[in-house]
Design a protein that fits this description.
This protein is an alpha+beta fold and 415 residues long. It folds into two domains: 22-115, Fumarylacetoacetase, N-terminal domain (SH3 type barrels, Roll), CATH 2.30.30; 124-410, Fumarylacetoacetate hydrolase, domain 2 (Alpha-Beta Complex), CATH 3.90.850.10. The protein contains eleven helices and 26 strands. Strands 6, 7, 8, 13, 14, 16, 17 and 22 form an eight-stranded mixed beta sheet that branches. The termini are far apart.
């Protein structure tokens, strides 16, 4: 692992090999930032003081309130900035380290800044790409012997979600209302969702678009993907159950999704690539791919009751995906759909084979039949008002640890 003059624990997950990107409010202004350990680095100030050597176009994007303009400049710019940051903050480089006045304007603690939405999301697609999750849901709601629908092994299933309600970690989530169909009722009723759930997901962000009518191939897909973020796709299971036939998710999903403030680049995650699963039946040619397209990223979900301690409810891994990002993007655009910079595509719930690795309360409690004990002695079938749901992700191998940060959100009562 590379050594930095910024002191940080080896377990922090934000070494010089990471250098993620985010956006923060600093002294009433916005700036593109990165992070080493617990130190937030103002990239705009780094350029203004002459340490980051970039042209005027790049420097201008570093003051924006989203990463969109910066991402649009291309991956070569991103790579150049990451390489320069790694050099500036390397242990042997004392130029900024020994300039206390400049350092005070560039390096801050988390308490000094407010992290903002990292990207301006124009469009959002949610996939359904974990075979274990799809199988579990099929067993619960359809035929256990034929849990997967006929199309699932042939294409990455997805739906178009609501971009406007994607919020950054720390934003409270209001319990949604809608139509509910109680099991013992003859007609639907209106009220607050009783079965509020999380979905453990990862999302990739588009950094390079395509023209309308143009397909992105699996081979070219990663050229269009800027990076990854942790993603909680909140779900109101009772609203969803009543409304989803015949057109799929609507109000049960569109009320909120939460993301981490940090976008971690594919370059930072490159050491954690894995081969994909054998896909049978054989996929159509446009979904075939070469190389290692899965990523070994350990994920966990915790629930913290108000005033209580965190309770671990799930440990899963991003490698548990049947369909990878390249296949998802290739399928998304095979009809000529145009993607724009800042668009976001979520993985779908990430569940493993074991009960402890299920990525939603729907599965963890098996529709509420197996309540989970909390640290304060209470039980959960789904999410209660006052609960804070916390998701964390980290890739680690051979002493290198790359964190995706965390996404945490408290649930507020319905209005």
């Amino acid at each position: 692992m590379k050594q930095s003059w910024i002191e940080h624990a080896a377990t922090s997950g934000f070494p010089l090999e990471n250098i993620p990107f985010g956006v923060a409010r600093i002294r009433e202004c916005t700036a593109v930032v990165t992070r080493i350990g617990d130190t937030i680095i103002d990239l705009q100030a780094l350029a203004q003081h002459g340490y980051l050597n970039v042209n005027a176009d790049v420097r201008e994007t570093l003051s924006h309130d989203s990463l969109n303009s910066f991402m649009e400049l291309g991956k070569e710019v991103m790579r150049d900035v990451r390489a320069q940051v790694a050099k500036i903050f390397a242990a042997e480089n004392g130029k900024l380290r020994d300039h206390a006045e400049h350092r005070a304007h560039i390096c801050m603690t988390e308490a000094d800044v407010t992290m903002l939405m990292p990207v301006r999301v124009g469009d959002y697609t949610d996939f359904y790409s974990s075979r274990q999750h799809a199988t579990n849901v099929g067993k619960m709601f359809r035929d256990p012997a034929n849990a997967l629908l006929p199309n699932w092994l042939h294409l990455p299933v997805g739906y178009h979600g609501r971009a406007s309600s994607i919020v950054v970690s720390g934003t409270p989530i209001r319990r949604p209302k809608g139509q509910l169909m109680p099991a013992d009722a003859d007609a639907p009723v209106y009220g607050a969702s009783r079965l509020l759930d999380f979905e453990l997901e990862m999302a990739f962000v588009i950094g390079k678009g395509n023209s309308l009518g143009e397909q992105i191939t699996t081979g070219a897909a990663e050229d269009h993907i800027f990076g990854l973020s942790l993603f909680n796709d909140w779900s109101a299971r009772d609203i969803q159950k009543w409304e989803y036939v015949p057109l799929g998710p609507f109000l049960g999903k569109s009320f909120a999704s939460s993301i981490s403030p940090w976008i971690v680049t594919l370059d930072a995650l490159d050491p954690f690539r894995l081969d994909g699963p054998v896909q049978e039946p054989k996929v159509l040619p446009y979904l075939e791919y070469e190389g290692e397209k899965r990523f070994d990223i350990e994920l966990e979900v915790l629930i913290q009751p108000r005033g209580g301690e965190e309770t671990l409810v799930c440990r899963s891994n991003y490698k548990n995906m049947y369909w990878n990002m390249a296949q998802q993007l290739a399928h998304h655009t095979v009809n000529g759909c145009n993607m724009n910079v800042g668009d976001m595509c979520a993985s779908g719930t990430i569940s493993g084979d074991e009960e402890g690795s299920y990525g939603s309360m729907l599965e963890i409690t098996w529709r509420g039949t197996k309540p989970v004990a909390m640290s304060d002695g209470t039980e959960r079938k789904f999410i209660n008002d006052g609960d804070t749901v916390i998701m964390r992700g980290v890739a680690q191998k051979d002493g290198l640890r790359i964190s995706l940060g965390e996404v945490r959100s408290e649930v507020l009562p319905a209005l």
